[in-house]
Amino acid sequence: MSFIGEYDCRVDVKGRVKFPSALKRQVQPESQNTYVISRGIEKHLTIYPYQNWKKISEELNKLNLYVRKNREFVRFFYQGATELTLDGSDRALIPKKLLSYAGVKKDVVLFAYADKIELWAKDKYDHLLANEPTDFASLAEDVMGKIQSLDKPEGNDGGLS
């Protein structure tokens, strides 16, 4: 499952966020109304369809918890994790503690990519985008240049040398 899209939303006075229908259509039927929300690695929240959360939990359960860094990571990762169920109006009630952690007041952005949906306070998300790397081409080379194409074996330049 791979998501795509940015959605401007609002948190109502009760702490609910309505899932946009275009985003909900991207979720597999077995996960469409059940999600897990947790603290993001940065000051945002991350929403996982329940099936994706189960896979991530299985991976975390493989960590050696006798290693301090692993324990610390697992504790932080699971801190605040809460199951969400969409109501009949496609709204999810976000725990106040999590909204506070992310600095959410009213306006939010749901940024969907890979297997997750990030929930950002709009002002923080806008600030993040305003701080675009000065040399995105260099960043792309550093990150993506390490990925070897499955179609082209390493060292094969297609006969161009």
Rg from C-alpha positions? 19 Å
Shape: globular
* Unreliable stretches covering 5 or more consecutive residues: none
Q: How helical, in percent, are the residues?
A: 25-40%
Tally of strands: 8
What do these coordinates show?
- By secondary structure, this protein is α+β, with helices and mostly antiparallel strands.
- It has six helices and eight strands; from the N terminus they run E-E-H-E-E-H-H-E-E-H-E-E-H-H.
- The mean pLDDT is 90.
Key structural traits:
alpha+beta; 6-stranded antiparallel β-sheet; two-stranded antiparallel sheet; globular
What's the gist of this structure?
With 161 residues, the chain is an alpha+beta fold. Helices cover 31% and strands 27% of the residues.
Topology:
Elements: E1 3-10, E2 16-18, H1 21-24, E3 34-39, E4 45-49, H2 50-60, H3 68-78, E5 82-85, E6 91-93, H4 96-101, E7 107-114, E8 116-121, H5 122-130, H6 136-144
Antiparallel strand pairs: 1-7, 2-6, 3-4, 3-5, 4-8, 7-8
